[in-house]
Prior knowledge:
Elements: E1 3-4, H1 5-21, H2 23-33, H3 38-52, H4 61-75, H5 80-94, E2 100-101, H6 103-121, H7 131-146, H8 151-168, H9 192-208
Antiparallel strand pairs: 1-2
Amino acid sequence: MPISREDVLRWLEACARVLAENKDYLTQLDSAIGDADHGANMDRGFRAMMTKLPTVADKDIGTIFKTAGMTLVSTVGGASGPLYGTFFMQAGTASANKLVLAPEEWAATLESAVNGVVARGKASLGDKTMVDALLPSVDALKQALAAGVPLAEALRRCAATAEQGMLDTIPLVARKGRASYLGERSAGHQDPGATSSFLILKAAADTWADS
């Protein structure tokens, strides 16, 4: 079950919709351990992305992802812009010149995107960041596909693992980002970046389940 260029566009549109729906929730999470702007920033960035995508809708998947990433870098405030921008720009590099992605190619694209975030943010598992949702989800996707699991189910496992990673940030003490300034007081709060990462991966599972 390959992922087409149209599927990618539908996913990005779903991301924009889901992030708009969860804007207040993400801001509420960020108000506890951040600058209370994560929801608004992500919503603004993905809205801007939606205005750019029609100009590249007939291009290859790599170009679509790179355009998405550059738009986020230029419109999303704080650390989220560079991190999510890097996510999509690295995805664009991995999928350059492709009009469809086989399941294994999507796994490789996602892995490149997440590795880009890790390199940019210098975060590790357990630091209470978006990496806690992203890194395990890549492993879950790769393991599912290697075991012969159909893509739709592999995507669901990927999203479920991201959700668990998100929940696992609650008891952690932040070691990176704005939340790290709070020290022990950051424990007991769910990381907003891990939450938006989960929402984005869940949107992929929901959107591509019927592809």
